[in-house]
Amino acid sequence: QSLSICLLPLLLSPALGACPQPADLKDADGNKLCARLYEDSSPYYDDCCGGKYLDVQGGEDVPYIKLGWNDRISSLVVAPRCELTVWSMKPKDGTTRKFTSGAYPRLQEIKKGLFGTWDDSISSYYCKCT
């Protein structure tokens, strides 16, 4: 029983792995981002948030994700005071989920419906910050 109590903080705060801290999300010009979407994930947290990435600005509303990104996102990070809403189909249709501030290094661990996960399942998104 004491082992489960020790593990509880680990279960409540997911490992960041190679993902940036949410507060550190900035574009090449140093402007704050709403989120960053990554094409790669890994069974090893240290190798997550890899490969190509797509920067998302606050207020960005994308019913049709950029060419080459449909159903390709495997990791993501959402900045503080921001919320990323995603859809499994275009244009903003199908299953939906809201990601609040934090790092999500392995979308295959996040359930989408009864049998699916959010790995390689994002086709539309909207990101807002307060």
**CATH class category:** Mainly Beta
Write the CATH homologous superfamily.
Crystallins
Number of strands: 8
Instruction: Assign an overall shape.
Output: globular
Radius of gyration over alpha carbons?
15 Å
Terminal Cα separation, in Å? 41 Å
The stretches of 5 or more residues where confidence is low (pLDDT under 50) are 1-15
Report the CATH topology name: Gamma-B Crystallin, domain 1
Binned strand content:
35-45%
Give the biggest sheet.
6 strands, antiparallel
**Domains, number:** 1
Structural class per helix/strand content? mainly beta
CATH architecture: Sandwich
Helix coverage percent = under 10%
Membrane topology: Peripheral membrane protein
Function: Functions in exocytosis in pancreatic acinar cells regulating the fusion of zymogen granules with each other. May have a pore-forming activity on membranes and regulate exocytosis in other exocrine tissues.
Pfam family, one: Syncollin
Protein name: Syncollin
Describe this entry's structure for a reader:
By secondary structure, the protein is mainly β. The chain has a single domain (2-129), classed as Gamma-B Crystallin, domain 1 (Sandwich). 8% of the residues lie in helices and 40% in strands. It contains 1 helix and 8 strands, in the order αββββββββ. The protein has one helix at 2-12, and strands at residues 35-40, 50-56, 61-62, 75-89, 93-104, 111-112, 116-117, 124-129. Strands 1, 2, 3, 4, 5 and 8 form a 6-stranded antiparallel β-sheet that branches. A two-stranded antiparallel sheet has the order 6-7. A hairpin with a 3-residue loop joins strand 4 (75-89) and strand 5. The radius of gyration is 15 Å and the shape is globular. It starts with a helix and ends with a strand. Keywords: Cytoplasmic vesicle, Disulfide bond, Exocytosis, Membrane, Signal. Functions in exocytosis in pancreatic acinar cells regulating the fusion of zymogen granules with each other. May have a pore-forming activity on membranes and regulate exocytosis in other exocrine tissues. It is a peripheral membrane protein.
